[in-house]
Design goal:
The longest helix is centred in the N-terminal third of the chain and has 19 residues, at 10-28. Helix 1 (10-28) packs across helix 2. The relative contact order is 0.22. The chain is 23% helix and 33% strand. It contains 3 helices and 9 strands. It has one domain (3-171): Rossmann fold, CATH 3.40.50. The chain has helices at 10-28, 43-51, 103-113, and strands at 3-8, 33-39, 58-65, 78-81, 91-99, 119-128, 140-145, 150-151, 167-171. The strands form 2 sheets. It has a 6-stranded mixed β-sheet, with helices on both faces. A 3-stranded antiparallel β-sheet has the order 1-9-8. It has 172 residues and is α/β, with parallel strands linked by helices. Helix 2 (43-51) links the parallel strand 2 and strand 3 (58-65). The structure holds 1-O-pyrophosphono-5-O-phosphono-alpha-D-ribofuranose (PRP), hypoxanthine and magnesium ion. Residues 67, 98, 100, 149-151, 155 line the site of hypoxanthine. This is Hypoxanthine phosphoribosyltransferase. It is an enzyme of class 2 (transferase). Pathway: Purine metabolism; IMP biosynthesis via salvage pathway; IMP from hypoxanthine: step 1/1.
């Protein structure tokens, strides 16, 4: 077992997700919108966020991974599941749990910008700049985090802790 220290409570997360949902709904009102969940880490944030977005939208799922069982990026992104919806002419919102080095988001932006979407924007629950290697533009941010390896609310360490309702720092 590892020691966990709570850094963002379930209540704080739920409040912030609702605020983000309102903000996003205003931006896309009346526009064709596809919201993409980046598996696995974004699964809880995504499912709460889409329920607080009031404008009509489609959803789809993409699977990328680079951390494996480690707390540092392998710098190699495995892309094992693509979306199934055609995004041409539609606005795309990529939903992530965390932008850390930025490598994953840079990869996703390159992928989806190449597919003639009307726009491609990014929503992330957490943005951690201490280890940022690629500068990526993020449109909607839940919380800025200074440092530390985080688990819970979708985020894992070696596949553990994803189902916790709060965000916690892992003491390895
Ligand atoms: O900015 P980066 O340094 O690229 O890190 C962010 C990415 O790392 C995690 O995914 P991971 O590879 O752990 O896969 P997972 O979502 O299945 O946990 C996280 O969910 C992001 O997708
Ligand atoms: O802090 C983190 N926790 C879990 N997964 C991650 N992937 C990038 N950064 C993190
Ligand atoms: Mg992970």
């Amino acid at each position: 077992m590892h020691t966990l220290k709570e850094v963002i409570s379930e209540q704080e997360i739920q409040k912030r997700v609702k605020e983000l949902g309102k903000e996003i709904s205003k931006v896309y009102e009346g526009e064709p919108l596809v919201i993409l969940c980046t598996l696995k880490g974004a699964f809880l944030f995504f499912s709460d966020l889409v329920r607080s977005i009031t404008c009509p939208h489609e959803i789809d799922f993409v699977r990328v991974a680079s951390y494996g069982n480690s707390d540092t990026s392998s710098n190699t992104i495995s892309f094992t599941k693509d979306i199934e919806i055609n995004i041409e002419g539609k606005h795309v919102l990529i939903v992530e749990d965390i932008v850390d080095t930025g490598l994953t988001m840079e990869f996703l932006l390159t992928q989806f910008n190449a597919r003639k979407a009307k726009s491609v924007k990014v929503a992330t629950l957490l943005s951690k700049k201490a280890r940022r290697e690629k500068s990526v533009a993020i449109d909607f941010v839940g919380f800025y985090i200074l440092d530390g390896f985080l688990v819970g609310y979708g985020l894992d360490y070696a596949e553990k802790y994803r189902s916790l309702p709060s965000i916690n720092e892992l003491e390895i």
